[in-house]
TrEMBL record:
Residues 153-165 have a biased composition (Low complexity). This is DUF4124 domain-containing protein. Residues 148-173 are annotated as: Disordered. Keywords: Signal. The keyword Signal applies. It comes from the Bacteria. Residues 1-19 form the signal peptide.
Amino acid sequence: MQPLLLNMIACALLCNAQAAFSATMYRCGNSFQDTPCVNHSYSKTLNTAAKPANGSEATKDLSPYVVDAGCKQRGDAAKKIMWQRQVGKTKEEQLEAAQDTQTHALVSEVYQHRGTILEVRNSIEQACMQQKEQDQLAEQLLLAAKKLKQRNGSPASAGPSGAASEQTTSNKP
């Protein structure tokens, strides 16, 4: 009885010791290594110690950037297009099956990219996020221009437009 108990305790200690001696891993693109990335590309540090079993780590996305729901959906659609591409569907076949202009544009964009499904999906998502950032900046600039025009242009624009309307009314017989 005592050797069985001793063996169980030894196994438990050895299992727990693995987590204590685990090293830090780095994710460089799609590969994993024990040193940081050489070319200073995106490098994500991964702790290989035991993870909690509550499932929160399993649902965590390892993408190198934050993606909103719309761009995530666009990336998933791009992934499905890539699956069809790998099966042998041509660009023309997928363009014919496209139901709207957004899908049509996405098919064209996917066929312009080369790489794995994951690389193409990440590229599409990243381009979507960049476009959203540009749209947001353009909207902010437009609002700032409107405010500036209202602040500086309101009194000045009322004068010339008022004068122009007076001229048109005085020119009428």
